[in-house]
Write a structure and sequence with these properties.
The complex is a heterodimer of chains A (446) and B (447).
Chain A lengths: L5 H17 L5 E2 L5 E2 L5 H9 L11 E5 L5 H8 L3 E6 L4 H10 L4 E4 L7 H4 L2 E7 L8 H11 E10 L12 E4 L13 E3 L1 H10 L4 E8 L2 E7 L13 E7 L14 E7 L10 E5 L2 E2 L4 E4 L4 E7 L7 E9 L8 E5 L3 H4 L11 E7 L7 E2 L6 E7 L10 E5 L2 E8 L7 E7 L7 E9 L2 E2 L3 E5 L1
Parallel strand pairs in A: 3-4, 3-6, 4-5, 6-7, 21-28
Antiparallel strand pairs in A: 1-2, 7-11, 8-9, 10-11, 12-13, 13-17, 14-15, 14-18, 16-17, 18-19, 20-22, 22-25, 23-24, 23-26, 24-25, 26-27, 26-28
Chain B lengths: L8 H11 L4 H7 L5 E2 L5 E2 L5 H10 L10 E5 L5 H8 L3 E6 L4 H9 L5 E4 L13 E7 L8 H11 E10 L15 E4 L13 E3 L1 H10 L4 E7 L3 E7 L15 E7 L6 E2 L6 E7 L10 E5 L2 E3 L1 E6 L5 E6 L7 E9 L8 E5 L9 E7 L7 E2 L3 E7 L10 E5 L2 E8 L8 E6 L7 E9 L2 E2 L3 E5 L1
The chains are: A alpha+beta (446), B alpha+beta (447).
């Protein structure tokens, strides 16, 4: 196949000639006021960074610059007060030279973004991912790693095939087998703007915002969290959390796990843009929002990348609502770890009995579809409402779907749903109220 | 690409893709995806008709007798293609991401000996399954978030041919699209078939290009239906022509494009540049047939240099084994030329390095360098030494190694070096280093 555009190739040849003459791609301002003139002018570099909502004061922030090249963006982030790690796929001597001339303390490492994530490099408040994506064979894998390492936001700049005026067009990505694009054989993919946005969302970001398309470059700000504060409309109720595939409480940050929320909300006509789930503080845009009953909704989304092993709270907002109740889910925990008490012992609170929610067989609870559990507990004050309590099954919260008033013996009944994929066997159950829980009782799941 | 304002095709396209091939209902009713005929004549009627499966099989460019062949079926589902390969004599390994009850049922009823593994595609290379003459990769590609990585893995597992089938977006029009840039649609949620585990839809051209770029030598389009394409992806070139129309190209030199050495790391995506001469005019990269370690490697780039030699760039084929690999080049209409070697994942074994002499490369004056170029004779360099792993030093300054000769009868190799322009003048210790071992220095004068 011919190069797609002879003029492009001519331009690139000229660019490379200039590079060889000048040696530098980035321009660098030295402390003396002198400027190392690169292909890109200081003004161009400032305009590129100005496309993104990066605060002028970055003191106390960690920044990762992926594909740092000569390093202007790294040094600019350092100038704003951040501690910066710059990575590139090969050692660039000009970066090291510039760092020395600037007396910079930016850390420099050689790494391939398709092969590194937070386990190797740690986490960063802000990740810069400029001009790299279209050089990659596995763009989704790279974006997932970018998301994994970002705790606040990632700034993505990539070549795009259109002018950005139709960000809702069907997402399409061109594939360059050899030198079709710019005559270079390390250019692999060219997404349209819509595809770039869709891939960023799929990587696990909560919000993805197209800032601009200038020339053939799309600028996308990707946020890990939903905007704050939450609204004050009535909150939805989170009634069950499960792994979308195994339908139990096994979650792993190493797998491409998806989460299902079963939610009760009187809102109507909900779409993927109306529902804001989050786990461990990280939001993820739903991949699916489904009406499951009169006021019941099923929300599926990717487990947010970058969760440490441990317990993480899951909750959601809908439109301008307040937050729902929260339920803790285990990520990369063994059953033994899950059975360790998570909260201080509740005083005066005691489990009287646990039964199957339909057959009321004592301590023998059916698992599988439509499984539910009932508990009778003593010591729950009259003022306590269902949102404040949950049953914990091997540590994982099963939110209370119903809480009775006290009977003659002072016992209150609590009902909760079980994820249908929980395997049969012995399990430990506690009752949690606010930030305390009872002693565990053992039940048999059958 | 940009939809006209009056009729936004985004809605239409999205809706038609969603409905395209939703067989969820049929699957629920029938309970089976594949159809089967058991040896006793019992028939199982699945979503895919038995006649379709058999017709599909006849498209595969495989011998009727597969005795002695290892076959890997990735995404086996109910297993019709696995069991058919086994019936024809192959030793079969079937892989799927879930434990398919129908597969196990059929495995038992057929008395199959196929090895069944529940693995993710990305886990296969480290699962110790080995390599396979034949790999089936049917209906899996568009379920992958990293389709290119998936194809690279498939290529690395294949020693002869992979049969690749995928959903495609331009089944009815692909012949007219041949000159378009290959493209893939991306499905963020359930846009394809109403299922949320479908990620990419390639055009026929993109599917072929992805397979070639993944490292297969030849990609043959076997069939294109309304919404799927079937390819045979070969690791080898066709046999040399019986009556070649031209002489083999003369392979002058080859080098790792990153290091300019002859060593390669198979864990990285590495490319080799080959310089060659040929009298054939109007050469195109499609006519270059490079072979590395027995596997065919297509050219990704070709250019004519000022010296009159051609420079072709080729990817090191996935799965090239560690050790010395033979490299040879032919054109479509020629036989292979002479063989050279590259080193894959080889360690540097160096015990001691000795330096015999250092001369100016132009004046041949011993120990006195006036031209900026020094030549020396070195023993103890390993077989896989190259311009990247052999280092020359003058005091603290590094000199670039430009040439390493073959060892002479006395075991010494000629090594040519170019001094850095800012190398300080005066008497300096000259030494050669390789694999962490340094020669004793010889003092030279630099003028």
């Amino acid at each position: 196949m011919e190069a797609r555009n002879q003029a492009d190739t001519e331009d690139v040849r000229r660019l490379i000639e200039d590079l060889q003459r000048l040696g530098w791609y980035h321009s660098i301002e030295l402390p003396s006021g002198e400027v190392i003139q690169g292909i890109q002018s200081i003004e161009q570099q400032r305009r590129r960074i100005a496309q993104f909502p990066i605060p002028p004061d970055l003191r106390g922030k960690r920044v990762l610059d992926i594909g740092a090249w000569d390093g202007w963006f790294s040094f600019e982030m350092e100038r704003r007060g951040a501690s910066v790690l710059a990575i590139d796929n090969a050692r660039r001597t000009r970066f090291l030279k510039a760092r020395e001339l600037l007396g910079s303390r930016v850390e420099y490492r050689i790494a391939d973004i398709c092969r590194v994530n937070a386990r190797e490099l740690g986490r960063f408040d802000i990740v810069l991912f400029f001009g790299v994506l279209y050089h990659l064979k596995h763009p989704m894998l790279a974006l997932e790693n970018v998301c994994d390492m970002a705790t606040e936001m990632a700034m993505v700049e990539s070549y795009v095939t259109d002018d950005g005026s139709h960000p809702d067009a069907p997402p399409v990505m061109e594939f360059y087998e050899t030198t079709e694009f710019l005559g270079q054989f390390d250019n692999w993919v060219g997404p349209n703007t819509s595809c770039l946005l869709a891939m960023c969302r799929t990587a696990g970001f909560a919000r993805v915002e197209l800032r601009s398309v200038l020339g053939d470059r799309g600028h996308v700000a990707c946020y890990r969290k939903w905007p704050v504060p939450a609204g004050d409309a009535p909150a939805p109720a989170l009634i069950c959390v499960e792994n979308s595939v195994s339908r139990d409480h096994q979650f792993s940050a190493a797998a491409d796990d998806y989460v299902s929320f079963w939610v009760r909300s009187p809102e109507r006509d909900l779409t993927r843009d109306d529902v804001f789930p989050e786990i461990g503080g990280y939001g993820v845009r739903p991949s699916e929002v489904h009406r499951s009953s009169e006021d019941g909704w099923l929300v599926n989304f990717k487990l947010p990348p970058g969760l440490d092993p441990g317990w993480h709270y899951a909750r959601l907002r809908i439109r301008d609502s307040a937050y729902s109740n929260a339920a803790a889910i285990p990520v990369d925990l063994t059953l033994g770890e899950r059975r360790q008490p998570r909260s201080p012992r509740a005083t005066g609170l005691r489990i009287h009995s646990v039964t199957d929610g339909r057959t009321f067989a004592e301590s023998r609870v059916r698992s599988g579809d439509d499984a539910c559990m009932s508990m009778w507990a003593a010591g729950l004050p009259d003022s306590v409402r269902a949102e404040q309590v949950s049953l914990r099954l091997d540590g994982a919260d099963l939110p209370a779907t119903w809480l009775s008033s006290a009977d003659a013996a002072g016992l209150r009944q609590i009902n909760a749903l079980l994820p249908p994929g929980i395997p049969p066997g012995k399990a430990k159950v506690t009752l949690a109220l606010d930030s305390a829980e009872t002693e565990a009782v053992e039940i048999e799941l059958i | 690409m940009i939809p006209p304002a009056d009729a936004p095709p985004s809605v239409g396209l999205r809706e038609s893709r969603r409905r395209q091939n939703d067989f969820t209902r049929a699957l629920l009713e029938k309970g089976w995806y594949h159809s089967f005929e058991l040896p006793d004549g019992t028939r199982i009627d699945g979503c895919m008709p038995l006649e379709w499966e058999r017709a599909r099989w006849t498209r595969f460019p495989l011998p009727a007798d597969l005795t002695g062949k290892r076959v890997l079926d990735i995404g086996a589902w109910d297993g019709w293609f696995s069991f058919e390969a086994e019936r024809r004599g192959a030793a079969v390994t079937s892989v799927d991401v879930f434990e398919c009850a129908n597969y196990l049922n059929m495995h038992r009823r057929l008395g199959s000996r196929a090895d069944y593994r529940n693995l993710d595609l990305y886990e296969i290379p480290t699962a110790g399954l080995g390599r396979f003459e034949i790999v089936f990769f049917l209906g899996v590609l568009y379920h992958l978030k990293y389709p290119f990585l998936g194809l690279e893995i498939v290529c690395g597992l294949t020693t002869d041919v992979a049969i690749v089938e995928s959903f495609v977006i331009d089944g009815p029009t692909w012949r007219g699209d041949r000159n378009d840039i290959p493209r893939l649609e991306f499905y963020e949620t359930d846009e394809l078939n109403g299922q949320f585990d479908n990620w990419f839809g390639p055009s026929v051209g993109a599917l072929e290009a992805l397979c070639r770029a993944a490292g297969f030598a030849r990609v043959e389009n076997l069939a294109v239906d309304r919404d799927s394409a079937l390819l045979a992806c070969y690791r080898h070139w066709l046999p040399e022509p019986v009556s070649p129309a031209c002489d083999p190209p003369e392979l002058l030199a080859l080098a790792n494009v990153n290091t300019y050495g002859i060593n390669f790391n198979s864990r990285r995506d590495q490319y080799v540049a080959c310089w060659f001469r040929t009298a054939v005019p109007d050469l195109r990269r499609e006519r270059l047939h490079l072979e590395i370690g027995g596997f065919g490697a297509p050219a990704v780039h070709l250019q004519l240099e000022e010296t009159g030699a051609w420079r072709g760039t080729f990817r090191i084929p996935p799965g090239t084994p560690a050790g010395w690999s033979d490299v040879r080049l032919r054109l479509t209409e020629s036989c292979f030329g002479a063989t050279r070697r590259i080193a894959i994942d080889m360690l540097l074994h160096v015990e001691a390095i000795a330096l015999k002499d250092v001369l100016d490369a132009h004046t041949w004056t011993p120990r006195r360098i006036t031209s900026g170029h020094a030549t020396c004779w070195v023993s103890g360099l390993p077989e896989n030494c190259d311009a990247h792993n052999v280092r020359a030093f003058l005091g603290e300054s590094r000199a670039a190694v430009s040439f390493i000769g073959e060892p002479g009868i006395d075991g010494f190799r000629q090594v040519n070096t170019a001094l850095a322009p800012d190398t300080p003048r005066g008497e300096k210790p000259f030494r050669i280093e390789c694999g962490g071992v340094s020669s004793p220095p010889l003092t030279v004068r630099i003028d």
